[in-house]
Amino acid sequence: MAEPRRPIDVCITIDAEYDINDSLEKPETHSPLGFSSMLRSDGERSQGLGFILDTLGGHGLPATFFVEVFCAHFFGTGEVRRMVDAIRAAGPHDLQLHAHPCWRYFRDPEWRRSVKTLIKNDSWAGRGDSALPMLREAIELFAAITGGPPQVFRSGNLQVDTAVHAALAQLGIPASSSVGLGLSMPESPALRRWLQPTRIDGVLEVPVAAYREPGLRGDRVKCLTITGTAWPVTRRLLDWAHRMQRGPLVILTHASEFATPAGACASENGRYRTDPLNQARLRALAAFLARERNRFNTTTFAAGLATWQATPPADAGQADDAVFVAPRLARLTRAVETAWTRLRP
Ligand SMILES: [Zn+2]
């Protein structure tokens, strides 16, 4: 008799970051936006962070928030702590480390002048030995903001190379979630993982789930995000992962996916307009995961890590990884879903 299928782990992850607001490109007229850019208020309620916390909280689902810390070079740690406090107040969510190197340009008080001539680099890949001190700086900021060290690191833009994992190992960070083939294809074949975790220098890399979407001009590689994946395709991917017993399945989203600036230009006091399509997708996902607890265990990195660490390590090859191929009509499904949401009153 076939072994009964067990529930697979699902992690909803939110890259919790403030809005750099084009200020490196337009330093004379633009400035970064802080906590208000996570809240994204429509004038009455928060349609960004508040919407996410209410939707997950309504179904008793936990999530992992990857908190971007280099923005503290512009705002100070207090402004970043406002978002951390709001997440902690909402429930048993998990806080882990996210960092975009581009915020480090704000260390220079004269940044409005100096960024005009700099060649900007927001990638963690290709840093070599300098990944180590930069990572140490990020961990220190995270500890100053949250009161403790992170267990998991997520690189900005999901750009990473094995030098980053070597640095994580040296600094005692046991895990990373910095791979997402739909966003960035790592140079090292060992990091090209669709969804199964792998180990690099002893650090467990748990990728953001990626899949293939067939199209007339060939397949597209996509990450499993709320804004990029139609709900029927997400549901099929979840069904597939359970059938194949593949997990943990990591989903990526951002507060910015659920509301966009109402005016032409975002500002600290500006209003935001809800994105009904993406909000409907997160609501559908949360309701589904709450209903299907016998098949899906919605968990956090902090809660799941020990189990994932104990699972026999994946080899550096691809044999144990597997890829979901979206139905041929996935692109059309997305278009129909968009049209349907726009038509509804
Ligand atoms: Zn980010």
Strand content: 15-25%
Please provide the ordered H/E string of secondary-structure elements: EHHEHHEHHEHEEEEEHEEEHEHH
Terminal-residue CA separation: 51 Å
Task: Give a short account of the largest sheet.
Answer: 9 strands, mixed
Number of strands: 13
CATH topology: TIM Barrel
What CATH architecture label applies?
A: Alpha-Beta Barrel
Question: What labels describe this entry?
Answer:
345 residues; alpha/beta; two-stranded antiparallel ribbon; 16% strand; globular; binds zinc ion
Write up what this structure looks like.
The mean pLDDT is 93. The chain has helices spanning 36-39, 49-58, 72-75, 77-90, 111-114, 131-146, 162-170, 231-244, 276-291, 301-310, 330-343; strands spanning 8-16, 64-68, 94-99, 152-155, 175-176, 198-200, 203-205, 210-213, 220-223, 249-253, 259-261, 272-274, 296-299. Strands 1, 2, 3, 4, 5, 6, 7, 10 and 13 form a nine-stranded mixed β-sheet that branches. With 345 residues, it is α/β, with parallel strands linked by helices. The termini are far apart. It has eleven helices and 13 strands. Strand 8 and strand 9 (220-223) form a beta hairpin. Helix 4 packs across helix 6. The chain has one domain (12-210, 254-310): TIM Barrel (Alpha-Beta Barrel), CATH 3.20.20.
